[in-house]
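Researcher: Here's the sequence for the chain we discussed earlier.
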Amino acid sequence: MTVDESKYLKDAKLLWDKGRSLEAGQIIFNNIPTDLKPKWFLAILDLAVLKSGTHFGPINTLQQTGREPQKWNLVRDVFSSIRKKTLELEQSDCISHEQKELLYLLYLAENVAKVIYNAMKPLDEFDLDSGAWIVSCLKDCIDISKNDQFAESAWSVLSWT
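Model: Thanks. This is the structure I predict for it:
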């Protein structure tokens, strides 16, 4: 790790610890080499899925499709499947703790899908701040899980340490 890498990670960690995860995410996202972004953010999704114990078909499809660049053109459809479930849960009057955990995982997966899709440099790009939102969504997943080991593992994945 170079001095510059160390500085941006220290700055991001300070923001993360202060509950300013979106700002931390922006710093991290801006410093990740473009060609590594899909792989990096898939690792974050993998960790969140593992720690949550939640299995949802479209998220699993995203994990598989995201690892095969020749299939990234399918990610927009996978995103749509994830978004459909997100909207369904958001419109529920009363959701259980488990459903809320799934909802936060869906938010994370939506943003990972956006970053992977954008890596193809399509004409119809998703939001360019999706990478920053991944870090914020990850923090939400950690907070609802109340799992200290998840928090420690998450920072290791975010900082590749």
